[in-house]
């Protein structure tokens, strides 16, 4: 019965609950519909409010709004400007962020899009469009400058060829081609000066060919003037052309422009040396500034190369291969430098071998100088003979070219005894080859000066013969009647003088052409044919030709550099006597760039001891400056001391060549200018000026040395400061564990002293609270007690450190650095109590 009643009650309760749910359901539906209507009304109101705001914003451009709205717009613009500046700063410093490349690219795109979108909105009212236009023009100007810089880089001649050579052969081989390109540019300017101011005016406004004896081939030479053998020796029609000194007329003015050709010839000859001196010194100063601006990279060399060598702008696979090869080569260079710096050998044996090598090289230099002097003297006897063979005519050029070809490899073989670092060995090799070439050149000049003196003595005889020939022709043509005009004498029949200036110019042109031919033949035979033989015959030979003899040839840096410098010295000396020599040298340098780049990439291999060139090419420039000074001396001697030829050249008829300046000043300038020049040329002013320049040079040199010493001291101080900081960090890292052990040692002792007071305070404040059960159990101090506050101030513990009870009697605390005594873990163990956790 009770179960039935309980079941009935449950059924009644469930029915009542269902009725209540049925009543609540329509009420919930009504409420939901009401909420939806309210939301739609709110959305409609918000839309109306937005439209009103848009209308208000549109009307503010025509009418003024309230002050609150104006201040809000200014704040927004200020915030927007700040954000734009932050994005710009982020774009400029994106390379320095230690992010992944994907993150860098995404952040960079977002920042650029933000700047492009909101940068034009920083203006106000009418200035908004102007500001947007100004920003757009600033962007376009930056883009134009970047494109123009890229265009200038693309316009640098042979840049990609040199980069390719550098990637495979190192910076030392590439420095030769950079030097070759620089010399090509300098010679191009010199050719423009000579061709534009001397050759073109003479050809256009001067007397034509055949109008006077100096521009006409003599009658005895006309039959063979066009033979190849004659032209190859620069005789015949080439000798009487604008290529050489003797072709130019000595009239003060020529043409309708009244162009002063003798004065132009003299000033251009001086300007060639002046411009070359200025360019060389400027290049040396720029290289020195670049080398000092780079700083000291002796620290962390391999780390810098490993993590900063790659160029992420490379998109060409071939360029990537070249860059990979370049990085590999730079690692080889640095490894060699490191090995050479750590080398330690027997110093006495090394000194003996170096002295022996220098003695052998001095003997070679003396022998080559004597051989050249002997050959030049014998060529003078051959020149007086007739029916001389081709070898006798070109013996001087052949011997000098052979010495320049075989002596550098001999020097390199002897230099193997010295065992220098490759870079230092290269400088010694350059100096020795430079001494060889310079000795050969000056020996040639001394022997040539003997020939010039003989020709000057011969000129007096020829001058008298020419005078009597012209006088006899005048008397024979007029006869007894003195009023008749004599017929002109054919220029080809007039006796000629030796014209020593043209003879000197021909010798320099021959040397230049023979040097070009020997260089190209050496490359073809010694590099290309040798490489083909090793490549194709190696399969059927008895030993490995690539690893043994003859193997592939290495690029001779020292020989090629000194060949360029020696050739340029001949150009400087010979350009005054052969104006067309500079044009020949321009063609030579142009073809050498392509020919030698092809030979290097196809026939040569990198050096076994790869090394890098110095940061500047000042060593090459120093040698070039020295050869420039030594080339100026013979030209200055001939201008100031030797009389010019009487029947050829622009200075004929004068006692000295420099008299053309005096003549121009006296005839074409006012009188006071002539007085000023006479005062300036007084030795009483020149000698003090030279002394003042020497003192100024000494002072500037002393100041430069002082700056260098100060710079070295600053570098030492910076190095010491960095080492001190390093030592501080290392000491701090090593002392941290000891300090921790010391804190752990001192903490229990302080707690043991303060423990009784803490227990008494706890008993007074809360008598119901007792310590945990145990013999050695003691209560911990509350967090807010002054004892714990003082202990925290005295000993600041690291976070989450368990502070335990002091050890029992007879147990010593561990010293710093000793292991802790192992006991029972903290907790409800007899004799130990659980410590409280420090709130620190």
UniProtKB/TrEMBL annotation:
Provide the leader sequence positions.
Answer: none
Major location category of this protein: membrane
List, for all copies, the residue spans of the domain called TMC. 499-614
Q: Name one GO molecular function term.
A: voltage-gated calcium channel activity
- Pfam families referenced in this protein's UniProt entry, alphabetically: TMC (PF07810)
Residue stretches spanning the membrane: 188-209, 263-281, 355-376, 396-417, 429-449, 576-598, 619-640, 676-700
A single GO CC term for this protein reads: plasma membrane
Per the record, membrane topology reads: Multi-pass membrane protein
Q: Which domain of life is it from?
A: Eukaryota
Similarity comment: family membership:
Belongs to the TMC family.
Stated name of the protein: Transmembrane channel-like protein
């Amino acid at each position: 019965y009770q179960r039935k009643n309980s079941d009935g009650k449950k059924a009644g309760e469930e029915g009542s609950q269902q009725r209540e749910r049925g009543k609540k359901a329509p009420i919930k539906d009504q409420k939901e519909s009401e909420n939806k209507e309210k939301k739609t009304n709110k959305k409609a109101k918000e839309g109306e409010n937005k439209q009103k705001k848009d209308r208000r914003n549109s009307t503010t451009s025509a009418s003024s709004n309230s002050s609150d709205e104006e201040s809000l717009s200014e704040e927004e613009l200020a915030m927007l400007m700040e954000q734009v500046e932050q994005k710009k700063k982020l774009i400029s410093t994106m390379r320095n962020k230690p992010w992944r490349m994907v993150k860098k690219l995404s952040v960079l795109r977002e920042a650029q899009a933000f700047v492009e979108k909101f940068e034009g909105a920083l203006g106000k009212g009418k200035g908004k469009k102007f500001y947007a236009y100004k920003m757009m023009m600033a962007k376009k100007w930056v883009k134009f400058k970047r494109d123009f810089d890229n265009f200038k880089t693309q316009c640098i001649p042979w840049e990609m060829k040199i980069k390719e050579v550098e990637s495979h052969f190192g910076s030392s081989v590439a420095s030769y081609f950079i030097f070759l390109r620089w010399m090509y540019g300098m010679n191009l300017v010199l050719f423009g000066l000579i061709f534009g101011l001397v050759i073109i005016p003479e050809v256009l406004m001067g007397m034509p060919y055949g109008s006077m004896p100096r521009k006409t081939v003599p009658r005895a030479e006309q039959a063979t003037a066009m033979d190849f053998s004659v032209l190859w020796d620069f005789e015949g029609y080439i000798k009487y052309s604008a290529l050489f000194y003797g072709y130019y007329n000595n009239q003060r003015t020529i043409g309708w422009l009244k162009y002063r050709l003798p004065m132009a010839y003299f000033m251009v000859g001086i300007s060639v040396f002046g411009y070359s001196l200025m360019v060389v010194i400027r290049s040396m100063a720029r290289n020195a500034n670049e080398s000092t601006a780079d700083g000291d990279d002796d620290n962390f060399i391999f780390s810098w190369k490993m993590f900063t060598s790659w160029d992420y702008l490379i998109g060409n696979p071939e360029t990537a291969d070249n860059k990979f090869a370049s990085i590999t080569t730079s690692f080889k260079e640095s490894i060699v430098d490191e090995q050479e710096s750590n080398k330690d050998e027997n110093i006495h044996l090394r000194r003996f071998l170096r002295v022996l090598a220098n003695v052998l090289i001095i003997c070679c230099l003396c022998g080559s100088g004597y051989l050249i002097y002997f050959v030049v003297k014998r060529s003078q006897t051959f020149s007086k003979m007739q029916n001389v063979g081709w070898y006798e005519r070109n013996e001087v050029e052949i011997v000098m070219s052979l010495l320049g070809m075989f002596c550098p490899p001999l020097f390199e073989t002897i230099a193997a005894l010295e065992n220098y670092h490759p870079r230092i060995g290269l400088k010694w090799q350059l100096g020795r080859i430079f001494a060889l070439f310079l000795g050969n050149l000056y020996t040639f000049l001394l022997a040539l000066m003997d020939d010039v003196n003989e020709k000057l003595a011969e000129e007096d005889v020829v001058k008298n013969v020419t005078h009597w020939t012209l006088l006899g022709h005048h008397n024979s043509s007029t006869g007894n009647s003195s009023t008749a005009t004599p017929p002109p004498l054919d220029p080809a029949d007039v006796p000629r003088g030796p014209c020593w200036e043209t003879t000197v110019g021909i010798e320099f042109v021959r040397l230049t052409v023979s040097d070009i031919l020997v260089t190209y033949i050496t490359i073809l035979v010694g590099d290309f044919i040798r490489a083909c033989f090793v490549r194709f015959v190696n399969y059927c030979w008895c030993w490995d030709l690539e690893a043994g003899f003859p193997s592939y040839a290495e690029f001779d840096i020292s020989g090629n550099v000194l060949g360029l410098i020696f050739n340029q010295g001949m150009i400087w000396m010979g350009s005054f006597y052969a104006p067309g020599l500079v044009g020949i040298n321009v063609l030579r340098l142009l073809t050498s760039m392509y020919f030698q780049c092809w030979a290097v990439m196809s026939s040569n291999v990198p050096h076994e001891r790869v090394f890098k060139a110095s940061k500047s090419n000042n060593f090459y420039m120093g040698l070039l400056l020295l050869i420039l000074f030594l080339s100026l001396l013979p030209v200055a001697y001939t201008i100031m001391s030797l009389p010019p030829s009487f029947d050829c050249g622009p200075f004929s008829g004068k006692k000295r060549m420099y008299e053309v300046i005096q003549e121009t000043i006296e005839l074409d300038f006012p009188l006071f200018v002539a007085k000023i020049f006479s005062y300036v040329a007084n030795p009483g002013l020149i000698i003090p000026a030279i002394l003042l320049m020497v003192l100024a040079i000494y002072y500037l040199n002393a100041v430069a040395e002082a700056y260098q010493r100060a710079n070295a001291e600053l570098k030492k101080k910076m190095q010491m400061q960095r080492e001190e900081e390093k030592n501080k960090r290392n000491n701090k890292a090593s002392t941290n564990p000891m300090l921790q052990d010391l804190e752990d040692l001192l903490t229990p002792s302080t707690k043991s002293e303060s423990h009784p007071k803490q227990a008494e305070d706890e008993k007074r404040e809360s008598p119901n609270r007792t310590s945990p059960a145990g013999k050695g159990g003691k209560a911990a101090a509350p967090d807010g007690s002054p004892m714990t506050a003082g202990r925290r101030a005295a000993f600041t513990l690291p976070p989450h450190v368990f502070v335990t009870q002091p050890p029992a009697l007879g147990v010593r605390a561990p010293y710093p650095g000793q292991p802790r005594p192992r006991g029972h873990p903290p907790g409800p163990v007899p004799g130990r109590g659980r410590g409280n956790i420090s709130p620190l």
